[in-house]
Design brief:
heterodimer, A: 786 residues, alpha+beta, Aldehyde Oxidoreductase, domain 4, 7-stranded mixed sheet, B: Alpha-D-Glucose-1,6-Bisphosphate, Chain A, domain 4, 7-stranded antiparallel sheet
Chain lengths: 786, 153
């Protein structure tokens, strides 16, 4: 079977992309469509005293100028966070109101106060410029630590001191006691820099209200169209669910930023109803920097203790998480349940305590970005482990190995139960591939050329396949995190799979097809994956958190079980055999041990003609499954990065990057390698290049590619990617997920390598040449003083 | 962002002071200035077209003169709105000192920008501002100093 599970099948979707025939939201053209341009605040914090649209309204082509008073007046609800986090003292979180168009106050640069609808995009933009907004400027704050200081400007009335919530996990007293008795303590301040997600396709929406049917259609760049429809209906009251169709056609990357329902989609839907026109909006790149939910932005202190045998006795962490100006859809879950629950890493740690202050600032809202909380946990833990190894004078590999979890299931003090893994094998495989033993010789050789060579580890674990619905419900999630699939066998035997997962670069049309092909021995060309349209697909929770394999494909697997069972019943009836003797392989349905056989297509035809079915059986061959996972899945691995630093300039070259991952079952190694390559590229981007910069007035200074440095091909090495898999016991395919691992595991490996090279652990991301050079100078000065 | 500078002008302190308060002279000297209307002795409104990096915008603004100490010093404070390009505000303290027949002008200026100019042009603001300040004072000096005949520009 060359196209089943484990085969390097070329991506089916690439044909249309390579031919330029992808169909993205901005490609959708509705008759008589108008264009939206948003009037955005240039101030980070200001009262909106008045909006004068009279000049704009009189301009050529302008259909309407609409504002927040009108929007709320029409009953459009505030944007909400869908995950309720409970504070230390038992109270709920302090969620401030977020209207799709700001009414009395703007809270970040880019906050929309009005929208112009016009016949052309140019007319809309020109008129937006003519809308006069009178602002009373208020003091603003961009950094979480500053927002928590006394006297900081108050951003939301109902969040005193700008605290959204103060949350904790683990046991404080036992952790303090364990650290008290430790033989060695390592302490660090660790900042996880703020990132902009930068999918290649910017966000876009086109909304059409059909007055004759009171029906709305929204094409939008969404990772989860059903969730978008649910939230737009249930919370924002734009339209009832059965009167709203949401379609996410081809979507060019998301990385988390397209999970959420943003002000622009809500406004387009509402404006379409107001103007009786289709309304289209497509973000430009600077608008994307100003409005797409950012990622990371944690400031933490961490303390880890070891006994005299170098076993970890306790870990205590405090984190200030910047949530930006408003609470985005999953913003509360990222720095809590997706972060602190992973602080045990690959290690056996009896005592962990973490508390998190989530903070409002006058910045773009922060939410999940590739990895979402797990990169922050991994970076913190893997940097402090490497630093501790240096302080203890032991090999970083050895210190980790000594503390690995080795038996499963393993319950951590931060509510996760690891179900499988083999951390030592992955580490060994990575060390062999990286020729770790030969490193000192390479370091000496580099020194002879005047270069500083360093090596760094990162042993990551993360939680994917979110997640058991009851479990996330008990933690505050407003939705269940199952997935659905429908497998339709057509009368001619071809198969359509309707999935609630959404593909926006992951290659589902290929990998999902492989799972079906494997089951029945059919060629993949006979199988079609349908996704992204609420009118076609039953329901779905969408794609994020590396869940489409472990959860989405499990739903397909379960639906295939039902199809297979019914097909066997039909075949047994037609072939006059026992159901238990029927086997399906190579596109044939056979009675085992005999020459009795029928083609797969004949079973389909029998099901749909209904001429000769078992007594009482309904015709048709189409089955649905709603699969609810039993646990998170735990991809893990070991990454080793080797760098050379030029001491004169601080320029760092990544010489080698080795990854050894445990993703469980792999459906298509080529696609998995692509995910690892892309994830590591984004992680190296965070470690060395990318940074969202705000000035003291909370003006965003890095809102274009001239100022925000994305990784380019010549910044990246050739990756050495390996796998050492253990099967995940939690789902039928044994899958763990691979979409985020690269972005989670790579940043600490890079920084650990650079700090090893320069002999100074005090280095923050992004490690630009000037920062590396300064850290090197500080290390030399310290050495000279000693 | 802070800037400062010093210029030697071949004119008396009284002449320099008068020019510093002359809207017509200022209009000619401010780079990109399209209009400067005096509404009182200390208040003016201005229209200035500027290009900072990729952002080109026309700013409508108000200019106020403060801390007047004729003929020795004043502060000039301004704020301008550039539409979707964002906003700029800033000020300069200007001092005059006599040196024989000539006058030495010193200034300390600060500027803040927001919106699109900050997002796209922040790296260029300091160099652009320094260039604009230089151009202004060079223009100002030329306006006061008698031009040599036949001198090449």
């Amino acid at each position: 079977m060359t196209e089943g599970i484990g085969a390097r099948v070329l991506r089916k979707e690439d044909k249309r992309f390579l031919m330029g025939k992808g169909r993205y939201t901005d490609d959708i053209v509705e008759p008589n469509q108008a264009y939206a341009a948003f009037v955005r605040s240039p101030y980070a914090h200001a009262e909106v005293k008045s909006i004068d649209a009279s000049a704009a309204e009189g301009m050529d082509g302008v259909v309407a100028v609409l504002n927040g008073e009108q929007l709320t007046g029409d009953g459009i609800g505030n944007i909400i966070c869908g995950w309720a986090v409970t504070q230390k003292d038992g109270s709920g979180m302090n969620m401030g109101a977020w209207s799709a168009l700001a009414t009395n106050k703007v809270r970040y640069v880019g906050d929309a106060v009005a929208v112009v609808i016009a016949d052309s995009i140019e007319q809309a933009r020109n008129a937006a410029e003519a809308v006069e907004v009178d602002y009373k400027i208020l003091p603003a704050v961009a950094q979480s630590v500053d927002a928590l200081a006394s006297g900081a400007p108050e951003i939301h009335e109902n969040a005193p001191g700008n605290v959204v919530f103060d949350w904790e996990i683990g046991e404080l007293a036992p952790t303090d006691a364990a650290l008290e008795g430790a033989a060695h303590i390592t302490e660090m301040e660790i900042t996880n820099n703020r990132l902009a997600p930068n999918p290649m396709e910017p966000r876009s929406a086109i909304a059409t209200f059909n007055a004759a049917e009171d029906h709305y259609t929204l094409y939008t760049t969404s990772q989860n169209p059903h969730v978008a429809r649910l939230v737009l209906s249930a919370f924002y009251q734009v339209a009832p669910e059965h009167k709203l169709r949401v379609i996410a056609p081809d979507v060019g990357g998301g990385f988390g930023s397209k999970i959420y329902i943003y002000p622009e989609e809500i406004t387009c839907l509402w404006a379409s109803m107001k103007t009786n026109r289709s309304v289209k909006w497509t973000s430009d790149r600077t608008e994307a920097f100003l409005t797409d939910a950012h990622g990371r932005d944690h400031v933490s202190t961490a303390k880890i203790g070891f006994d005299k045998d170098h076993k970890i006795v306790g870990l205590k962490v405090n984190t200030k998480a910047n949530l930006g100006a408003y609470m985005s859809l999953f913003s509360s879950a990222v720095p809590t349940y997706l972060y602190a629950t992973l602080l045990s890493g690959q290690y056996n740690i009896s005592n962990i305590y973490c508390d998190v202050q989530a903070v409002y600032t006058n910045t773009v809202p922060v939410d999940a970005y590739r990895g979402a909380g797990r990169p922050e946990a991994c970076y913190l833990l893997e940097r402090i482990m490497e630093t501790a190894a240096r302080e203890l004078g032991v090999s970083p590999a050895e210190l980790r190995r000594k503390n690995f979890v080795t038996s499963f299931p393993h319950e951590t003090p931060v509510i996760m139960t690891y179900d499988s893994g083999d951390f030592a094998t992955n580490q060994e495989q990575a060390m062999t591939a990286a020729d770790f033993d030969g490193f000192e010789a390479r370091r000496a050789e580099a020194a002879s050329r005047g270069k500083l060579r360093g090596i760094g580890f990162s042993n990551y674990i993360e939680a994917c396949g979110i997640a058991p619905s009851a479990a996330v419900g008990s933690l505050g999630a407003g939705v269940g995190l199952w997935e659905s699939a429908e497998v339709r066998v057509n009368p001619v035997g071809t198969i359509e799979v309707l999935t609630g997962s959404h593909s926006h670069g992951q290659g589902h049309e290929t990998t999902f097809t492989q799972v079906v092909a494997e089951r029945f021995g059919l060629p993949t060309e006979n199988i079609q994956i349908v996704h992204g349209d609420t009118d076609k697909v039953q329901f779905g929770m969408g794609t994020y958190g590396s869940r489409s394999g472990a959860v989405g494909m499990s739903a397909i697997f379960k639906a295939l079980d039902k199809v297979e069972a019914k097909a066997k019943k039909i075949a047994a009836h037609v072939l006059e055999a026992s159901e238990d003797d029927i086997v399906i392989e190579g596109g044939e349905v056979k009675v085992a041990g005999t020459d009795k056989t029928m083609g797969w297509h004949e079973v389909g035809l029998a099901a749909y003609t209904g001429h000769n079915l078992p007594e009482g059986m309904e015709p048709g061959l189409k089955e649905t499954s709603f699969y609810d996972p039993t646990n998170f899945t735990f991809p893990a691995g070991c990454y080793i990065c080797e760098v050379e630093v030029d001491p004169d300039t601080g320029v760092t070259d990544i010489i080698q990057f080795v990854a050894s991952d445990d993703f469980g079952t792999i459906i298509n190694p080529m696609i998995v390698e692509g995910q690892v390559h892309g994830g590591i590229a984004q992680g190296i981007g965070q470690a060395m290049l990318e940074n969202v910069v705000y000035d003291d007035d909370a003006q965003q200074l890095s809102a274009s590619y001239m100022d925000y440095a994305m990784p380019r091909a010549d910044d990246l090495p050739n990756y050495s990617v390996h796998h050492a898999s253990t099967e995940c016991p939690g789902n039928p395919l044994g899958m763990k997920g691979c979409g985020e691992a690269g972005a989670i595991g790579s940043p600490p490996a890079v920084i650990n390598a650079i700090t090893d090279a320069i002999g100074n652990n005090d280095l923050s991301m992004p490690a630009t040449p000037s920062k590396v050079w300064a850290a090197l100078q500080a290390a030399s000065a310290k050495q000279a003083a000693e | 962002m802070e800037l400062s500078g010093e210029y030697r002008i071949a004119a008396s302190k009284a002449e320099v002071w008068a020019a510093l308060n002359d809207a017509e002279v200022l209009e000619r000297c401010i780079p990109g200035c399209e209009e400067l209307d005096k509404s009182s002795d200390t208040e003016m409104s201005a229209k200035v077209a500027l290009k900072i990096g990729p952002v080109k915008a026309r700013f409508n603004g108000n200019v106020t003169l403060e801390n007047l100490d004729p003929p020795n010093a004043y502060s000039i404070v301004g704020e301008g709105q550039g539409g979707v390009a964002g906003f700029a505000k800033g000020g300069a303290d200007v001092q005059l000192a006599e040196d024989g027949d000539e006058t030495i002008l010193t200034y300390q200026a600060n500027a803040q920008v927001g919106g699109k100019i900050a997002q796209l042009g922040s790296r260029l603001i300091k160099s652009t501002s320094a260039k604009l300040a230089d151009k202004f004072f060079a223009n100002f000096r030329d306006a006061l100093e008698p031009q040599e005949e036949g001198a090449e520009g």
